Amino acid sequence: MLSAVLLSACSTFAPQATTPQPGPAVPVPAEPQQPVLSAKMAAAQDALRIMVNLQDRLSRVSAPLLINNADLCKSMARNLLGFTAQNRYSYPGEFSEAARTVLGYGERLQVSSVLAGSGAARAGLRKGDGLVSVEGKSLPGGPDAESQAAEVLGPLVGKQAALDMTIARNGNNQTLKVPVTRACAIRVQLGNADNINSYADGQRVLITRGMMNFAQSDEAIAYVLAKDIAHNVLGHAGAMRNSAAVGSMIDNLVRTKPDLSLLIGSGGIKPVPQDMDTAADNLALYMLARAGYNIDRVKPFWQRLSSQYPASVLNGYTALHPATSARFAAIDKGVAEIKAKLVAKKPLVP
């Protein structure tokens, strides 16, 4: 932001018998003009602030689920960096300029979130740090920076226990040794839609803005995330041949301006069979308990959701998970089983 400097001149007049002659005019600098903020750009900035805040919340809530359950994720556990990075080109159109204004993003990749409890968090990596190099290799900037950086970082993460990363912070470069983090390699994303739903395509979990608003508390959001993480771990989307349809829905809803006409019906996504849904509920309870979330309120949450948004709401959660009675019975059984293992001091493994 530019600050306008106002200059004023003061004249002192002594009593004189004659009228003083005016001196030469002193030019006064024009006040700098603030750039005009169009309604479209203002709307983009406001929307971006909301999206970033919601995504930050998802990252915080999902962190213990992903890190504390690596051994339950089976083949989906990976060594991860424990942070995400973006630049202005991570957002399309007017949102690119909004990312520059609101987030301070430019050409260089900057840390956009750090997974709580990860090696990156322990090493002191912070949101906003610029990524300069890793193990002496420069990290790219510009429009393709995310994909190009992934090509550099991916092989290193798989081979090394920690990486020397040079970051830019407050105008200075510094090097941090960032330990890799063993966690469930499942990407958690925000859906820019107000329907009350969430989706799991085998690799990703998406929870809509509407579902987050319905859930309200972090704990309830964790219930939804755990259920979809469990679906991915158990391979349900692939077994149902649902991966393509769900993946297309996620691809659509992560856009800053999704095509909401796809939410008029189910989007071609098949309802989850009862046996798969109850299995995912059971695994989700274990994941929640191991992550430190209270499992006593899981059933009341799903009861409230199915009551307010029944299966007749085609773009809602219950339409894709209609076996509510069987689910609630499975949740009761799972909660009792977990509590018994806690009392007996047995491992929390299904």
Brief rundown of the structure:
The protein is of the alpha+beta class and 350 residues long.
Overview of the structural elements:
The protein has 350 residues and is of the alpha+beta class. It has helices spanning 39-67, 94-103, 119-123, 145-159, 209-215, 218-233, 236-239, 243-253, 274-290, 298-308, 317-320, 324-343, and strands at 77-80, 83-86, 110-114, 130-134, 137-138, 162-169, 172-179, 181-184, 187-191, 198-200, 204-208. The protein has twelve helices and eleven strands. The strands form four sheets. The protein has a four-stranded antiparallel β-sheet with strand order 5-4-6-7. α1 (39-67) crosses α2 (94-103), α6 (218-233) crosses α9 and α10 runs antiparallel to α12. The longest helix has 29 residues, at 39-67. It is globular, with a radius of gyration of 27 Å.
Order of helices and strands: HEEHEHEEHEEEEEEHHHHHHHH
**Cα-atom radius of gyration:** 27 Å
Strand residue content:
15-25%
How many separate helices?
12
Structural class: alpha+beta
- As a percent range, the share of helical residues equals 40-55%
Give the quaternary arrangement of the chains.
single chain
User: Which spans have pLDDT < 50 for at least 5 consecutive residues?
Assistant: 1-21
Straight-line N-to-C gap: 56 Å
Q: For the largest sheet, list the strands in their spatial order.
A: 5-4-6-7
Total count of strands:
11
Largest sheet: 4 strands, antiparallel
Q: Could you tell me the mean pLDDT?
A: 89
Overall form:
globular
SSE layout and pairing:
Layout lengths: L38 H29 L9 E4 L2 E4 L7 H10 L6 E5 L4 H5 L6 E5 L2 E2 L6 H15 L2 E8 L2 E8 L1 E4 L2 E5 L6 E3 L3 E5 H7 L2 H16 L2 H4 L3 H11 L20 H17 L7 H11 L8 H4 L3 H20 L7
Helix pairs in contact: 1-2, 1-6, 6-9, 9-12, 10-12
